[in-house]
């Protein structure tokens, strides 16, 4: 069966994707530098699938290390590239850390793929490339706007690098998957989101407040032009998102792609406000969430949710899990992680 490299495979979305790849019979090799993940995730994956992926600890900024890896694993048929720094706020404070870690590593991997007879490449991109879109829902043709952060810029630059490389490399085919807001955890509660330090994202902050690690959730503004004044996002269950990666990879491996560089928006197609997410949490957990409305967070866009037509029609993929399913799984995971 095809051997697939998953970079960042011990991370949140990476680990869920490894599970889905193994479930579909792929042989998986993981590279992770453990800077934002833990080796215990490997046990979680094994507990779910019964198979332990090959794991190599490697910092992808180590160019010779990347070269040595591909010399050893020269039978790799595809790469799903998650490994990157992804904290929006941190990227504003440390832009060079983000440009080095997110861009140079991508270049080193693409240089190795160019040497293979043929290679399929899936890139972890983000709806953040659209900024505040002029039209909703957001299609793949929406203009890519001036990034709100160096993190978002690395996703835009990454897509351009891949597009330019595919143009001159007939052996290389690539898909950029633009995620909306990934949330939730595997239903087994063996893997899930493990934010380090104070969570920047909404859902882990909600579950940590629910379980008592955080005193209270701050809701960043309720004076936006939305149904209840709080921002709207498209919250996609991480398992649905993981399955989309396997479908996209298979599209390339079976030559169903229409060009050798494609982009797909991955969302539910439905927007939810912050207060609606809180309500969903309270419903599935039975916990009354302690929160307060505070001022807006700099850089937040008002509303974003996906037009899923292209992914539905061309990938033959659509989300199957609801916001409540995602909140239920996130809560179950939080309780397991805290030994409750
Ligand atoms: C969602 C909503 C906040 C925390 C970012 C990146 C995106 C992806 C996901 C990496 C917003 C509100 C949040 C809190 C709150 N990252 N919020 N209180 O900003 O939409 O997307 O994370 O892949 O690329 O841009 O996600 O979860 O931070 O915020 O009120 O404590 O929740 O204002 O409206 P965001 P988020």
TrEMBL record:
GO terms for biological process: galactose metabolic process. Its EC number is 5.1.3.2. Gene3D superfamilies: NAD(P)-binding Rossmann-like Domain, UDP-galactose 4-epimerase, domain 1. Keywords: Carbohydrate metabolism, Isomerase, NAD. One of its GO terms (cellular component) is cytosol. It is an enzyme of class 5 (isomerase). Residues 5-328 form the NAD(P)-binding domain. CDD domains: UDP_G4E_1_SDR_e. Its cofactor is NAD(+). It catalyses: UDP-alpha-D-glucose = UDP-alpha-D-galactose. Belongs to the NAD(P)-dependent epimerase/dehydratase family. This is UDP-glucose 4-epimerase. It comes from Siansivirga zeaxanthinifaciens CC-SAMT-1.
